[in-house]
Amino acid sequence: RVFDFPDLSGKRVLDVGSGSCDLVMYLNSLGAKAIGVDLRYIDLESLKLQTGAIIESWKEQHRGIGSDEYLQAMISSYNNFLGDFAKGKNYVSALAGSLPFPDEAFDFVYSSNCITHGLDRNYAVFENTVYEALRILKKGSEFQSYPFLGEMDKKLRENQRKLVEKLRKEGMKIRTEKATRFFDRLRIVKP
Is the pLDDT of residue 58 over 70? Predict the structure, then answer.
């Protein structure tokens, strides 16, 4: 499990950099009030083109190595996402560092392969994005991001460690936990 989701039934949840997956739809099916944010959420047709290109690229990279089951699961996830996106209510086009929500609007915020292992390449962007996620998070609530540390570029690890140290000095409760064999998960509770 990449994310260790608490009981989110009835809670407002934000997926930062949610991309083309059906996790927002899944969390809503469990009773959460989840919203996905991604800069690419401009229109359905451009998302269909991007999703098709991702699938074709994946097919090419993995041709002949017996990954048909995973490919079918990935296609199903993308189709579920596109169907949910077409309904027009759970997805917002926005930059992760400039979220269009009021302070303390969410009970839980998470990000997979966006804030960490994406925007952490530049420290200033990374710092701004984490603070933005914390701004919209209610006091006493949790932000999770994956992947964190682990087998990645030295510069990313330095940026992540530097920000964690700063946040700890500001009184944030921070934990890192093993999420997969290669990466940790970052958990921050807003005081």
Answer: yes
Residue 150: pLDDT over 70: no
CA distance linking residue 133 with residue 144, whole number of Å: 10
Please report the DSSP string for 13-30 in residue order: EEEET-TT-SHHHHHHHT
CB distance 159 to 126 below 8 Å: yes
Let me know how many helices (H) and strands (E) the chain has, helices first: 5, 7
Nearest to 28 by CA among 44, 17, 12: 12
Does 132 have pLDDT greater than 90?
yes
Stated pTM of the model: 0.81
Sequence-ordered list of residues with C-beta below 8 angstroms from that of 41, at least 6 positions apart, any chain: 47, 85, 91, 92, 93
User: In the Cβ-directed half-sphere of 52, how many Cα atoms lie within 13 Å?
Assistant: 6
Report the distance separating Cα 96 and Cα 174, nearest Å: 21
Of 94, 106, 82, 110, nearest to 22 by C-alpha is 82
Radius of gyration of the chain (CA): 17
pLDDT given for residue 46 in this prediction = 79
Q: Are 156 and 113 in contact (CB under 8 A)?
A: no
